[in-house]
Amino acid sequence: MSRLVVIVPLKPGARERADELLREGPPFDLEKTRFDRHHVFLTEREVVFVFEGEGPSNTLHLPGEDPAVWRAAEAWQECMAERPRLAPTVYSWTRTGNPAGMSFEPTAGPGDSEGGDVYPP
Question: pLDDT tens digits, residue range 44-56?
Fold first, then answer.
């Protein structure tokens, strides 16, 4: 799993306008990208965009050639305190579960299935 994390610092008092922009949704069709998941986090001081997808991280990028992205960037200018920055992943943890039907119990061996001793006397 690869991630693209973009942090947008907000001007003081710009949280409400940022919230309005976020409620409009992404300026591009996420189904047409390589992203499998997308999250946005909003605080008083910043917006954090998280995009996730399979494959190496260098294949994940925002569709900058789409004019809708540029129009959205213009709308965000009034909110941004400084240029957005990328945040690389420095640590990640994922819980691994036991898929249905998979067992880590010991398997039957000699003597278990025949009902006799493992080692003959």
Answer: 999 999 988 887 6
Residue 51, SS3 per DSSP: strand
Q: Do the domain assignments include residue 66?
A: no
| Count of domains forming the chain | 1
Tokens of 33: 């990208």
Token readout for 120 is 């003959």
Residue carrying structure tokens 């591009």: 28
Determine contact, residues 2/55, Cβ cutoff 8 Å.
yes
From residue 46, give the alpha-carbon distance in Å to each of 55, 60, 68.
28, 22, 22
Q: What is the dihedral of CA 82, 36, 64, 48, to 10 degrees?
A: -10
